[in-house]
Design brief:
This protein has about 220 residues and is α+β, with helices and mostly antiparallel strands. About 55% of the residues lie in helices and about 10% in strands. It is built from 9 helices and 4 strands, in the order βαβαββααααααα. Strands 2-1-3-4 form a 4-stranded mixed sheet, covered by helices on one side. Helix 1 crosses helix 6, helix 1 packs across helix 9 and helix 4 packs antiparallel against helix 5.
Length: about 220
């Protein structure tokens, strides 16, 4: 086995892949990439020209995108936690939840936070307002779906949880009334933060949290 993960600890999608790796204690070599460093970025795009992480390298195989990485690990390096249900119908429903948290929670959060990094005169207040409204809708749907449930899908930890935890962790940082407005989601997140794979991932990200732009 010669797995290498190209990543940055602050990236939500890298957190998603890391949680899966740590969940099954899958051996790998972490390769931190600072995309703002021209030399490091140049080396990284030689591996994956798109220039986005995470990217998993397994010998000659290059595996990009967090969901694809987790599916690859589940197939090639299975462990005690299986991230994809064996039943095709359950697997499809789980993948829908995985995409839901990536596309309707995380992507809107990224829009809000990314706007804070724009230079003066380049902000997009309309786009941010639209992202906040859509994020609120997604969180309300999640709060209703998670009532009385321990996991994002089914009765165990899956790829949907690997997606949900980073998305909700960062959403809590940009939504002022997160805990009171979405108590089921907040309770779910609090429980998952105690999970060893999640706690390790966030502990490793902590030294970089000062880079997270405040609102």
């Amino acid at each position: 086995m010669a797995l290498t993960l190209y990543y940055h600890p602050l990236s939500s999608y890298c957190m998603k892949a890391l949680i899966a790796l740590y969940e099954n204690e899958t051996p790998f070599t972490p390769q931190l990439v600072k995309l703002m460093d021209p030399a490091e970025r140049a080396e990284f795009v030689k591996i994956w020209p798109i220039g986005k992480f995470p990217v998993l390298k397994d010998g000659d195989w290059i595996v990009p995108e967090s969901s694809i990485i987790i599916e690859y690990l589940d197939q090639k390096y299975p462990g005690k936690t299986r991230f994809i249900p064996a039943d095709p119908d359950a697997a499809r429903q789980m993948r829908m939840r995985d995409r839901f948290f990536d596309l309707y929670v995380m992507e809107h959060m990224v829009k809000i936070v990314g706007d804070r990094l724009r230079p003066e005169g380049k902000h997009d207040p309309f786009g941010v307002e639209e992202a906040r409204n859509r994020l609120a809708t997604a969180l309300a749907m999640s709060d209703e779906a998670m009532a009385g449930k321990s996991f994002a899908f089914g009765d165990g930890f899956t790829m949907a949880d690997c997606a949900a935890v980073p998305a909700l962790f960062y959403a809590a940082k940009v939504v002022a009334d997160f805990a009171s407005a979405y108590p089921n989601v907040a309770g779910y997140l609090d429980r998952q933060l105690k999970r060893p794979s999640v706690a390790r991932t966030l502990r490793e990200a902590e030294p970089y949290m000062e880079m997270f732009p405040k609102g």
